[in-house]
Specification:
Elements lengths: L1 E3 L2 E2 L1 H9 L16 H5 L4 E7 L4 H7 L6 H8 L1 E6 L7 H10 L3 H4 L10 H4 L3 H8 L4 E6 L2 H8 L7 E4 L6 H18 L9 E7 L1 H9 L4 H28 L4 E5 L17 H4 E7 L9 E3 L7 H8 L17 H4 L2 E2 L4 H11 L5 H36 L5 H33 L23 H4 L11 E2 L3 E3 L1
Parallel strand pairs: 3-7, 3-8, 4-10, 5-6, 5-7
Antiparallel strand pairs: 1-13, 2-12, 4-9, 8-9, 10-11
Helix pairs in contact: 4-12, 10-12, 11-12, 17-18
Length: 474
């Protein structure tokens, strides 16, 4: 038995009466699930991010019953996607995944974190926290850039868990897995039946690619390890579902692929670098298990999550809901051999036109310079800090002075080169499209559930919260 509880705020009622459908993010003229389907929105959504993972390597090394990758594919729909014509660097790509817009809008160019883009282009965390603050939002990650995104904007994630490096990246990802499972298991004892969005990020595949190459045995082993981690997470969801009856919608994706040889890794436009994938298992939908979708994109992930929770869609999203948008639903096919069908789909993708290839290559080179300088400055700072910590007479004092000099001059150099790089990136098409939707109001301003506050009235009336009765669904 599944107990489903959903509340409609005053704004939702007003919008539905007006016939706009905006309260639940339904495009005007959209023909899809009934209003009741939207009101009974998903209560639990899990997004698993695996950095730098080629779908072809999953199919080669982790397409077996012991891998969470295959289990998720068998229980959902898989799309071989591509980000050709967009930067294959982690920061810009994860920003697309978590905002629903490409880099020509959000303007993120490298892995130097800056919070400003997420003020104009709110993240999935911001949107959920503003429109549905009752949803508990959590991120568990072992790259602090992801935690930075989750904490950016005026409405950050409720729980922002950073897992520091421990021994090696496989061990660190195992800690991410454990923390993720703990968050999932905690929902079994939740007396308030709180809805949840959980983003779990793992990095060992990308790190193996940078250290050994995407065609290496180490990269293959990292893919196998990550598949095992995902299986543990899916097993935890199954255990919780057996207790609570609540189903989870699950999405699994990557930010980019990897060059096969040891080198730069990614950042350019070869098919191995632009390759991506999206696996989507919608709660309660088993009719399309094991299918393929030819229209999935990483830009669809944020719109999909928002639609599952009944949150309004931005008009300037590049992505659409994979759960409800007919243009995506029409791309579902049921292949006889999913592995072969996905292999064939990967082979369809090639290079961009030569002009875009050159333009994006220049952008990658230029924007990587400040990031590389920052890594050097950080390592020098760590070395000097190790001397300071030893408290050696005179020497530690000198190291502390040098540390301050390095921090000041190094920071100035990094900031200057990053500003120049972002200027060049703009000239090559990054961040050139401005939002058409207004920014989210800051925290503490009129809430979405306060329809009277949004209308600007001061009449001492509160918007009613209308509660649907609990439904027991067999």
């Amino acid at each position: 038995m599944t107990s489903i509880k959903q509340f409609l705020c005053g704004t939702a009622v007003a919008s539905l009466v007006a016939g706009t459908g905006a309260a639940v993010g339904v495009p005007i003229g959209y023909v899809g699930p009934s209003a009741l389907d939207w009101w009974l929105a998903a209560e639990h959504v899990l997004l698993i991010g695996v950095d730098g993972t080629n779908l072809s390597k999953i199919l080669e090394y982790a397409y077996n019953d012991d891998s969470g990758f295959k289990i998720a594919m068998d229980q959902g729909i898989t799309g071989a996607a591509t980000e050709v014509n967009h930067t294959t660097i982690s920061g810009p790509s994860w920003s697309t995944i978590l905002t629903g817009v490409w880099d020509d809008k959000h303007g993120v160019v490298n892995n130097l974190f800056r919070p400003e883009p997420y003020d104009k282009w709110p993240t999935v965390f911001n949107m959920l926290e503003y429109y549905k603050p009752e949803v508990n939002t959590t991120v568990v990650a072992d790259w602090d850039y992801i935690n930075g995104i989750a904490g950016a904007g005026g409405h950050p994630a409720d729980n922002n868990i950073f897992v520091p490096f421990q021994d090696d990246w496989a061990t660190t990802d195992a800690q991410v897995t454990a923390q993720t499972i703990a968050q999932i298991m905690a929902t079994a004892n939740n007396p308030d039946d709180i809805s949840n969005f959980l983003f779990s990020y793992q990095v060992q595949v990308d790190e193996a690619g940078h250290s050994f190459g995407g065609g290496s045995a180490e990269y293959a082993q990292a893919v196998v390890n990550t598949g095992a981690n995902i299986k543990e997470i899916l097993d935890a969801i199954a255990a919780v579902k057996a207790v609570t009856g609540d189903d989870w919608s699950i999405l699994i994706t990557t930010d980019h692929g990897h060059q096969q040889s040891l080198g730069f890794g990614h950042g350019f436009q070869s098919p191995n670098e632009t390759t991506q994938f999206v696996i989507f298992d919608q709660a309660g939908d088993h009719a399309t298990d094991g299918s393929q979708n030819l229209n999935y994109s990483i830009a669809d992930i944020t719109p999909t999550i928002l639609s599952l929770f009944g949150v309004p869609m931005r008009s300037d999203f590049d992505g659409v809901s994979m759960a409800f948008d007919p243009t995506v639903l029409n791309g579902v096919v049921s292949p006889v051999d999913l592995k072969q069908a996905l292999t064939d789909a990967i082979a369809m993708y090639g290079y961009p036109n030569i002009g875009n290839d050159i333009m994006l290559g220049i952008r990658t080179i230029v924007t990587s310079i400040p990031y590389g300088l920052n890594l050097v400055v950080t390592e020098i700072d760590k070395f000097l800090q190790s001397i300071v910590d030893q408290d050696i007479f005179l020497v530690s004092g000198l190291a502390e002075f040098l540390q301050q000099v390095v921090q000041f001059t190094g920071g100035l150099v990094v900031d200057t080169t990053d500003t120049l790089a972002r200027g060049i990136a703009y000239l090559t098409g990054s961040g050139v499209i401005a939002p058409t939707d207004p920014p989210l109001p800051p925290a503490g301003s009129a809430d979405f559930s306060d329809v009277w506050g949004l209308l600007g009235g001061d009449h001492g009336l509160a918007a009613p919260d209308l509660a649907l009765p609990d439904f027991d669904v067999a």
